Each structure stands twice: as C-alpha cells, then as structure tokens.
Fold this sequence. Notes:
Blueprint: H1 2-18, H2 23-29, E1 34-39, E2 42-47, H3 50-59, H4 61-72, E3 77-85, E4 94-99, H5 156-167, E5 177-180, H6 187-202, E6 208-212, H7 213-225, H8 229-237, E7 241-245, H9 254-269, E8 273-278
Parallel strand pairs: 2-3, 5-8, 6-7, 7-8
Antiparallel strand pairs: 1-2, 3-4
Helix pairs in contact: 1-4, 5-6, 7-8, 8-9
Amino acid sequence: MAKESAKAVWETCLEIIRDNINYQKFKSWFEPIKPVKLENNTLTIQVPSQFWYEWLEEHYYNMLRSTITKVLGTDGKLEYSIVMEKSENPIDERSVRMPQRPVPPSKPQNLTGYSGHNPGSIQNPFVIPGLKKSKVESNLNQNYVFERYIEGDCNRLARSAAMAIAENLGNNSFNPFFVYGGVGLGKTHLIQSIGNKIKQDYGDEKSILYISSESFTNEFVHAIRNNRASEFSMFYRNIDVLIVDDIQFFSGKEKTQEEFFHIFNALHQDGKQIILSSDRAPK
C-alpha cells in the first residue's frame, strides 16, 4: 500500500515538475527516478547515482521543495535513496539514503568530478557536489586558425559559414554545422578554426571541446564499464561548443549513436553550438 501511495504521490509531483522545465531536462533528470516509499509524510525516491543526487539538489532544490510542499503539505519531506552499486538483480543493489538539504547549497564544494575519460586531457567542467564550473581543455590545435586556412572557390561558402558561427556564437543560422568533404581537404582545420576563434574571443567563459568520433566512442565504452554513464552524458550536455570530427565512424555503433543522439538533442535544445565533420555525405 505504501509503495502504491508513493507512486501516486510521485506521479503528482511529476505533473507539476513537467510544467516547470523543458521536456528534454524532464526526460533526462526526472523520468528515471523511481518512487520507493511514503512513510511519516516523507517521500523516498531512488536516483541512479551520487552525481544525480548532487545535480538535483544543486539545480532543482527550490522546485522540488515547493513541489513536495504543495503535494504533501508544509510538513512534507523528501528523501533520496542513492544507488551506490548496481546489479542486474534490483534486490542486490546497494544504496544509501540521504535527506533533502534543509536549505539550498550556499556554495559549491571543491571535490573531484567525472574524470574517467580515455584521452586523459579532457577534464570535467563540473565537480560534485555543487558542480562548480572550471576550465575545460579544448583539445584544439592552435595552428588551425582562419588566418592559415587557404580559401578557394570550392570552400568559400564553408569558410564564410564557419566565420559566421565564430563571430556570432548563439546567434547564427548554422546550428548544427555539418562539414562534408573528402579526405585531406581541410575539414579538421576549418572546424578547429571555429573553436580557436571562439576561445580567443571568449576565453574560459565558454567551454569548447574538440573530439574525434573514435575518442568519443572509447570514452563512452569506458564510462559504461565503470558505471559512470550519467557523468559522461552530463559532461557533454554542458559543453557550450561541441566539435566532433569524422562522425562517419559512428556507423554500426548503435549504442554510441543512441547516446550521441540524446546529447545532440539536449545541446541543440539549449542553444549550444554543434559542429560536425564527415567524409561521407549524410543520408
């Protein structure tokens, strides 16, 4: 009975939450949450990881607090059941319980966040808890700039579009920007030129990341093996300018394609710039 009651209460909460945030964020952060129990007017919900708990508390504390108050009354409380060790059998999963903070976090703590990236040079710009933003290593080659890019009749349109993106970040008609061309024609130089120009103009204000499709895939596999898929996803969803080279190598990798699809949609909906290159024409 308590289980059914918890489910009903949480569904009511979700209806309120759904009306207050965009669909993508609702689907990403709230749909995976499971109601556990309702006891002594305290609703316990299960979240997939410590990272998840910290993100909700940092970004949605006020909304969750007011929603619980509206549904359960002024004495209503929220408690988290955090999955610490996943198992194929839900009964074997290990979790810890954490109450919602009595007040919103005043300032982020300086703890290490997701660092399980294969390249090693990519650092998570968000730390746990508080998800404090820090410098992101862009992986850009500083030699790839517009001044060194050779312009001709065959690439003039692509270069003009690239310049428009770099000079009007967040206010251009080329998002996503897809560059297609044969091997050795300067695609990598052009897309990295955009990143270097934005970095020059904005400094550390904008997080810019250049990555090959192969490195992206390797990171994703590594994250899954280490039960850190949610950290991986949120790292990429919070990049301001994402540049992915040679996306043709995603072909045949269904799980990677699915993850990239969700990241792509989240970034695009938030108005973040997406830049892609391929040596194969889109189908």
